[in-house]
Amino acid sequence: MSEPKIMLSCRDVSIRYRVGDFKNIGLKEWVMRRLTGRYKVVDFWADRNVSFDIRQGDMLGIVGTNGAGKSTLLKVVSGIMEPTKGRVARNGRIAALLELSSGFDGDMTVKENTYLRGAMLGYTRDFMDATYGSIIEFAELGEFEDRPFKQLSSGMKSRLAFSIASLVRPEILILDEVLAVGDGAFRKKSEARMREIIKGGATTILVSHSIPQVRSMCNKVLWLDKGRQVAFSGDVKGVCDCYEEYLKGAGAAEYKPVAANG
Amino acid sequence: MFGKLRGHRFLFEELVKRDFKKKYKRTILGMGWSMLSPLLMLLVMKLVFEQFFGRSVGHYTTYLFCGLLFFNWFAESTNAGMRSLFGNASIFSKVNVPKYLFLFSANVQVLINFVLTLCVFFVFCAIDRVDFTWRFLLLVYPVSTMLLFCIGVGMVLSALFIFFRDIDYLWAVALQLLMYGSAIFYTTEKFSPDMQLAFSFNPVYRHIAYVREIVLAGTVPSLGTHLALLGFAVAAFLAGAFMYKRYNTTFLYYV
């Protein structure tokens, strides 16, 4: 039996991220700091030697504490950033939804925002015309269509964002903390939708702090800790167990396979 | 680049639509307002300077309007362009889209404005009894090079604006200097040869001079002038394209 084709492959991806005093300073301030030698820029490795492959239909969960390098990795995967070292090969159209409900325009209506977001994700006008109805229906925002976006509650905003992303059927879908929003009913609905997408052959990357969600939905898991790749495995249960131990402070950030079944 | 642009046509259209709606929302006069500002400037300059220069320059109103038309376009385009990249930081830091789309969208906005003002300009020409000749068709040339020039300068400025947020104050001063240095309300004939040479390095002035030659003198500018306009436009565009290419993935750290 041949395996499904590889949709995304990261090889020894290392990303150097830059932080320092350079943000929000003007030219005047920059010259002053340069002259007085108080201009500090620190480069650090947000991700180091991360390697993984995902195949068609896979759902990869990425877990890790804050600052583990998850979001930076996703930025590289989606092409917003370039890896400092290593290589990323993509094999299909990516729809990345990072920090989901931002990037909307508060002054525009829900409908305008939906079209703009659809356009950002790379879809055509015809496609959006055809799907718009079901996006609004799924987000349960029928009566808000012509309201300015800023009048929506944050839950509604995330619902809309999720609806757009999930209905447009990308080949690779990246979801960053998306499913953690909305009320219980919507969360159930969105999980069901995710399963449908996976069944439809899409490949998905899910970043989540909800371990039960990763356990129930993902078939592969990548654990990052301070930029280091602790584990990448199909043994979702094993990795999640170790990660939970680590979160409780009981174990070190390492993964010990219990059984060698991969 | 243009193939990529076609692939992002839908996004581009939506961006243009958004910029348009945002700009003219909550203003009763809407587009009329942005055309009113060059006209008011025209009125003030005419009242103030006609005493000094009106006698030596025929069709002084048209002479002024040629200058204001192109200078205002340049000022508006670069000001809007400068903020276009930073203003869309929340988009390009989350989705991988070509960053020049934002600048192009801002320029479409300004270009529409320019074309409308251009129509008013032709009406004024008619009132001022300027002879309309076939040479008016040549105006397409300076409009094209100016558009390219505006985009180039806009790219450089919008990239710089990401790094240094106070560049807009400096640019306001630079525009002020440029306004006085572009012979909008005076003529350059009486200046020394050195000054003449300095004027010839001012891209905005060269564009204005081209338009005046067509509209007022009714002659076709020299080949050298054509090459100069093209040279300025290409140089600015290449500088802008270089900055966008070089800092494409660096902008992210600064927003």
Summarize the helices and strands and which ones pair or pack.
The complex is a heterodimer of chains A (262) and B (255).
Chain A: E1 6-20, H1 27-36, E2 41-55, E3 59-63, H2 70-77, E4 85-90, E5 94-97, H3 110-120, H4 125-139, H5 154-167, E6 172-176, H6 184-199, E7 203-207, H7 211-217, E8 220-225, E9 228-233, H8 236-248
Parallel strand pairs in A: 3-7, 3-8, 5-6, 6-7
Antiparallel strand pairs in A: 1-2, 1-4, 8-9
Helix pairs in contact in A: 4-5, 5-6
Chain B: H1 2-7, H2 9-24, H3 31-53, H4 60-87, H5 89-92, H6 100-127, H7 140-163, H8 167-181, H9 193-200, H10 203-217, H11 223-247, H12 251-254
Helix pairs in contact in B: 2-6, 3-4, 3-6, 4-6, 4-7, 4-8, 4-10, 6-7, 7-11, 10-11
CATH architecture grouping of chain A:
3-Layer(aba) Sandwich
Order of strands in the sheet with most strands of chain A: 5-6-7-3-8-9
* Helix content, binned percent of chain B: over 70%
How many runs of DSSP E, i.e. beta strands of chain A?
Answer: 9
The run of helices and strands of chain B is HHHHHHHHHHHH
Structural class of chain A: alpha/beta
**Continuous helix count of chain B:** 12
Oligomer: heterodimer
CATH homolog superfamily of chain A: P-loop containing nucleotide triphosphate hydrolases
Q: In terms of per-residue confidence, which ranges of chain A show pLDDT below 50 for 5 or more consecutive residues? A: none
Helix fraction of chain A?
Answer: 25-40%
User: Strand-and-helix sequence of chain A, N→C?
Assistant: EHEEHEEHHHEHEHEEH
Number of domains of chain B: 1
Largest interface (CB within 8 Å) is between:
A-B, 40 and 30 residues
Q: How far is the N terminus from the C terminus of chain A?
A: 17 Å
Number of domains of chain A: 1
- Strand content bin of chain B: under 5%
Radius of gyration of chain B: 19 Å
Low-confidence stretches of chain B: none
